[in-house]
Amino acid sequence: LVDASVNVRTKSQLKTNGDFVYLSARKLIAHPEAGNFKYNGNVKGQIKKKRAYEDDIFIKSQVLSFDSNNNVIFLNDMVEVKKEFVTATADKGEIYLDNYNKSLKYFLLNDDVLVKESFQLPDGTTIDRKAVSEQLEGIVSEDKYILTGYPKVFQDKDILKGNKIVLRKNNEIIEVDNANTSFILK
């Protein structure tokens, strides 16, 4: 049993893909042989990808549990996941560290999800987009974010609603299933 407190910092390398997981918190209780690590209090972290062309992912929460045997991170209370220009917040989340190169969800956020994205189009126009839902699935290998549970997307003066909304990184196009939308036409 490892019990550490005050300015705890850890660095772990995943055996499966060589990625590094850096975490800091106020308190850590760990069972290294069992592969269980529980961080408490202002937890911050970075998932540093082994390949230079893959973007790092930054995470925050108040409580984080890391199951190193299954390469899963569980986040609770004031969760934030940030990748490049996309920031998502929620009450709970899970990150599946082995699912990065597959067409499987890489992370899952639940309860009061808020997604903020800002990107620039080729013509120089900046797009600010905000989305809310009950659940967000992130498929990082495809730069795709799937919103379900009464999702709404606010982009400029437009509001998009549907059963399922798919956002893609740096793309103005939004996929909406069973749309209920209001546009401002110019």
How large, in whole angstroms, is the Cα Rg?
18 Å
Q: What amount of the residues lies in strands?
A: over 45%
**Count of distinct strands:** 14
Query: Count of helical segments?
Result: 0
Largest sheet: number of strands, sense, barrel closure: 14 strands, antiparallel
The arrangement of helices and strands along the chain is EEEEEEEEEEEEEE
Structural class: mainly beta
Note down, in words, how this protein is organized.
The protein has 186 residues and is an all-beta fold. Helix content is 0%, strand content 67%. It is built from no helices and 14 strands. Strands 1, 2, 3, 4, 5, 6, 7, 8, 9, 10, 11, 12, 13 and 14 form a 14-stranded antiparallel β-sheet that branches. Strand 7 and strand 8 form a beta hairpin. The radius of gyration is 18 Å and the shape is elongated. The chain starts with a strand and ends with a strand. The relative contact order is 0.11.
What's this, in brief?
This protein is mostly beta strands and 186 residues long. 0% of the residues lie in helices and 67% in strands.
Keywords summarizing the entry:
14 strands, 186 residues, 14-stranded antiparallel sheet, elongated, mainly beta
Topology (elements, then pairings):
Layout: E1 2-13, E2 20-31, E3 36-48, E4 57-67, E5 72-83, E6 86-96, E7 107-120, E8 126-139, E9 144-148, E10 152-155, E11 158-161, E12 164-168, E13 174-177, E14 180-182
Antiparallel strand pairs: 1-2, 2-3, 3-4, 4-5, 5-6, 6-7, 7-8, 8-9, 8-10, 9-12, 10-11, 11-14, 12-13
